[in-house]
Amino acid sequence: MSPVAMEDVVGVQPKPRAAVLAMPEYHPPLASRAMLRLDFNENTLAPSPRVFAKLQQLTAEGLTVYPEREPMEIQVAAHYGLKPDEVLLTNGVDEAIHLLACAFLDADDEVLLCTPSFFMYDVSCSMMTRNLIRVQADDSFLFPRERFLAAVTPRTKLIMVATPNNPTGQSVSREDIRALCAAAPHAVVFADEAYFHFHGESSMDDVPAIPNLIVGRTFSKAYGLANLRCGMLAGNSGLMQYVRKVSSPYNVNGIALAVLPEALADQAYLDWYVAQVHTGRERVYAALAELGVRYWPSTANFVLMDIGRKHAALVAAMRERGVLLRDRSSDPGCDGYVRITIGPEEHVSRGLAALRGSLTEVGWTPAESVPAQGRGDGEREYE
Ligand SMILES: Cc1ncc(COP(=O)(O)O)c(C=O)c1O
Q1: Using one digit for the tens of pLDDT, what is the confidence trace for 286-297?
Q2: 342: Cβ below 6 Å to ligand 1?
Q3: How far is residue 146 from each of residues 48, 88, 133, 143, 155, measured CA to CA in Å?
Q4: Which domains does the chain possess?
Q5: Sign of the CA dihedral with 218 first, then 221, 225, and 227 last
Q6: 65-104 pLDDT, tens digit each
Q7: Which atom of ligand 1 is nearest to the CA of 220?
Q8: 165 Cα: distance to centroid of ligand 1 (angstroms)
Q9: Which of ligand 1's atoms lies nearest the C-alpha of 97?
């Protein structure tokens, strides 16, 4: 074989798959976040102290070992009353979404999504198929049940719904999830319950009985472990075997696996954090009503509010005051809408004080917080 001359290959670069060229990118605004983080719906305080204590017991040698996921999956399954082969631990729900797309989507298949919703569904599914069918919610952001069911076709292979939904805070009832599973027995129905703890209603108990249902949970939100990247999928073992097959054996790091039992065991901490969020949510509603800001009552640890044309100015003014918010204006149907995360009492107080000051500073008036009719949808930016 004759050697290839460098001049023959300069300027020639291998191309990725067409789907990779076409897929959207997700660039969450992660820079300079060392302030009050009311932008990503994380726990804004800390995980259970038991988690941190366990972390400090880890050894240097422990870091040299490949992580073993299975013993923890057995524990997690027992925690939820499931069988071990019905559970898969993942590198956050983000990876879980990716694995579902890899395991179930061929290029001809359709994915059914409700918009606005979590953008990673678009990213991971676009990698596999162009056929993303999006059903847009109206300005109430209630789950458009009838239109969504009507969008199921024989080609629908994967249905992804977040409940509670991000960024709207609305949820999909367990009954509606069951109806979806029944209407599309040929499709996998993924109920993303990343924010379950702040809501309380779950489809987890339906997992053993419904063969095409997969439920997702994360340890990033209420548990306060976003930095450790740990989530889970629960579903019928017949389906889960394929998701397990496409996952890396070392997808969840050993630090997350080591502290997970502590996080799961400290129910008192979880209950305290969730109670703080519930109280905080009510305080945020009351403040927004008093200020005249339109908002959507939420079942999650965040509230979406309608700021109108001054959305970017408000987010910038809040940053100046050391508080991060998330501008959701580029989401479909969200022109002018901004999301605020609810944390423990003190964080809510600081967030609300900054909000009052910033609204005044940008010259905002309640007249700008009006239903969306007439306001054109902004072009969606994939931030
Ligand atoms: C609806 C929804 N699902 C999943 C995730 C990702 O969670 P994780 O940190 O487990 O990857 C998020 C994060 O914001 C989310 O909003």
Answers
A1: 999 999 999 999
A2: no
A3: 41, 32, 15, 9, 18
A4: 32-43+268-368 (3.90.1150.10), 49-265 (3.40.640.10)
A5: positive
A6: 999 999 999 999 999 999 999 999 999 999 999 999 999 9
A7: 9
A8: 10
A9: 4
